[in-house]
Each structure stands twice: as structure tokens, then as C-alpha cells.
Amino acid sequence: MTDSLPPCPQCSSEYTYEMGALLVCPECAHEWEAGAGDAAVESGEEGTVVKDSVGKVLADGDTVIVIKTLKVKGNPTPIKAGTKVRSIRLIDGVDGHDIDCKIDGFGAMQLKSSVVKKA
């Protein structure tokens, strides 16, 4: 019966269950109305949710911190872990690069959400 229920919209867990008129995720305790999230996803209203390395949802204008040292092509110095990046923009990038930003000393570039955490 769990095959007919949609996965959790927050953590993508497949172990959702019904509780009255609501669907519940046992892993993250998220509750939502059956069919409410499905209509928004099908019509494209909700968009893609971008999460950082620890699972927090990112939005345009957020400040993030790079969590590991990143080598940059064409630049002899890497972006060091702990570098703060202000005013990010979320994009549908290539190869998983879903953050567009400017980094002091490096200029405009794209980052993967898996190498940053929300500040």
C-alpha cells in the first residue's frame, strides 16, 4: 500500500503513511495534505528546492559558507573552507552547479549546493 503514496516532499523518504486526511513522513515528521503537493509539482508552481550540505533549504539572497577547499581552474589559489559568500542566486545550472554568486578575489562563479552550508 505504501507504493501508492507519494514520497515526502521535504526529505524524499519513501516511508510515508496516512493519518486521517494527512500524509506523514516518519523520518522528518513532515505532514501535508494528500494531493496538495502533487498538484503544485505537476503544474510547476513550486519549483526545485535546493538544499545545502546539511539539508537546510536555500533561497535567493542567502549567505552561505564554503565547507571544503575548492580548486578553481585558471587560478593558482583555491577557495578556502570557511569563505563566506553573500547574496547567492539559485539557478538550474549544469552538472549540479545550482548556485550563482560572486566571491571576493575570484569573481563570478557557480557552486554546488553540496559544498556550502547556510550561514
Automatic annotation (TrEMBL):
SUPFAM superfamilies: Prokaryotic SH3-related domain, Zinc beta-ribbon. This is Alkylphosphonate utilization protein. The lineage of its organism: Bacteria, Bacillati, Actinomycetota, Actinomycetes, Micrococcales. It comes from the Bacteria. Residues 50-119 form the Protein YjdM C-terminal domain. Residues 4-33 form the Protein YjdM N-terminal domain. NCBIfam families: phnA. Gene3D superfamilies: 2.20.25.10, SH3 Domains. Belongs to the YjdM family. InterPro entries: YjdM (IPR004624), YjdM_C (IPR013988), YjdM_N (IPR013987). Pfam families: YjdM (PF03831), Zn_Ribbon_YjdM (PF08274).
